[in-house]
Amino acid sequence: MGKIDWSPPEISNDDRMAMKAVIDSGWMSEGKATEEFEAALAKRIGCRHAIVMNNATSALLAALWGNGIGNGAEVVVPAYTFIASVNTPNAVGAKSVLCDSNPKTLNTEPEFMKQVLTENTRAIMPVDIAGMPIDMGAFEDFAKDNDLVLIEDGAEAIGASYRGRNVGNSGHATIFSFHMAKLITSIEGGCMATNDDALAEKVRMIKNHGTHKKEAKTNFFGFGLNFRTTDVQSALGLSQLLRLDHFLKRRNEVARIYSQELDGLVGMQQVPEYVSVHARMFFPIFVEASRRDAIDAALNRMGISTRICWPPAHMQPYHRRLFPDEKIPNSEMIGNTIIAIPMGNSTTDEEAKTVADAVKKAVGEN
Ligand SMILES: Cc1ncc(COP(=O)(O)O)c(C=O)c1O
User: Fold this and answer.
1) Ligand 1, from 101, 156, 192, 331: best to mutate by most atoms within 8 Å of Cβ?
2) What's residue 294's pLDDT?
3) Pairing mode, strands 149-153 and 165-166
4) Where do runs of H (alpha helix) occur along the chain?
5) Best mutation site among 52, 82, 180 for ligand 1, i.e. most ligand atoms within 8 A of its Cβ?
6) Coil, helix or strand for 265?
7) Cα–Cα distance for residue pair 265/271, rounded to 1 Å
């Protein structure tokens, strides 16, 4: 059996030609191609502003600064997430406060956040885990009732929708990532989507040294750094965006095969009724904690590439010292039992069946 990659990118001839055209044009830094990518993203998401940056971590920082989150503020984030959601509030001088998540859906919920609110809480940053949308209406109500800034970490969820509404079409900030393993890639890249004109204006300044493209380049009107992307990468992102619906369809078909083949054998992420489209950025399966590493190793020996995404934030080697006394039971259970199996834009039905057979074998023998 050949090796099956965890999340291989799908780069078409059109993608290559789009990048080459920008290189040949003589202008490769952020410019016209990025404006086109932003306009196409805003149209696809259905939002007023899509502001492209060099990665989603920068977009999270810009969204925090743009919302005035800094010194003394507490920001509630789930312990079960990719570490950027936890590092970014700390990086702007705020403090990340960890909450638990639903062990069935892997997403956090307002009830879990409520348990860790203090008088210093200023913002909440829920995450669409594996590209499955959170139930946003509940978070919008929760944020409003408690006077909190809401930033959605949708890094894994471009193309997803809930209750018929696209993730990113909202009054708050939603962050997307275009890293190579995501649904569409610009190699490294990210964006902030919002319908809030004032926030969009601030974030455009923050990503560009505190100035605005239309202003003279030597005048700086606010705080900012350089989170710009390149037009070469935006040309790739735009070309990939044209195939987003195809990628969503493919991934959901692979997920259907996994769900059918592995039903009853391993645990899987439950998809609530409110989810209209799951982006399926990765596909987690759950096995007993005591057998997880052996099953994972057996899959790797069979040529199936996997990821343990992720130990929860408070269990990470660096972060243990930041959260020494935390006990976050659901997140720990998820982190101890998860294996993410291959899921890519070009994963075929045959590959999905091969992976499912390998999981059956590995679970049976370990
Ligand atoms: C939930 C989450 N947030 C943030 C990020 C950071 O994205 P980037 O790698 O584009 O900075 C990722 C990327 O894996 C992610 O999965």
Assistant:
1) 156
2) 98
3) unpaired
4) 13-25, 32-45, 56-66, 84-91, 110-114, 136-145, 197-206, 231-241, 244-262, 289-301, 329-337, 349-365
5) 82
6) coil
7) 18
For the chain, domains (ranges, CATH) are 13-241 (3.40.640.10), 244-365 (3.90.1150.10)
Token readout for 25 is 């044009």
Q: Is residue 106 classed as helix, strand or coil in its secondary structure? A: coil
CA 56 – ligand 1 centroid, Å: 6
* Number of alpha carbons in the 13 Å side-chain half-sphere of residue 129: 32
Q: What is the pLDDT of residue 1?
A: 55
pLDDT tens digits for 107-126? Answer: 999 999 999 999 999 999 99
Which residue among 81, 179, 338 is best mutated to probe the pocket of ligand 1, counting the most ligand atoms within 8 A of its Cβ? Answer: 179
pLDDT tens, 275-313? 999 999 999 999 999 999 999 999 999 999 999 999 999
Determine the pLDDT at residue 220.
85
The confidence score (pLDDT) of residue 214 equals 65
Distance 217 CA to ligand 1 centre (A): 31
Taking CB atoms and a 6 Å cutoff, what residues make up the pocket around ligand 1? 55-57, 81-82, 84-85, 127, 153, 155-156, 177, 179, 190
Distance from the alpha carbon of residue 189 to the mean position of ligand 1, in angstroms: 10
Residues 135/274, Cβ–Cβ less than 8 Å? yes
Residues of 327-341 as b/e, b for ≥16 C-beta within 10 angstroms? ebebbbbbbbbbbbb
Write the pLDDT tens digit of every residue in 39-74.
Answer: 999 999 999 999 999 999 999 999 999 999 999 999
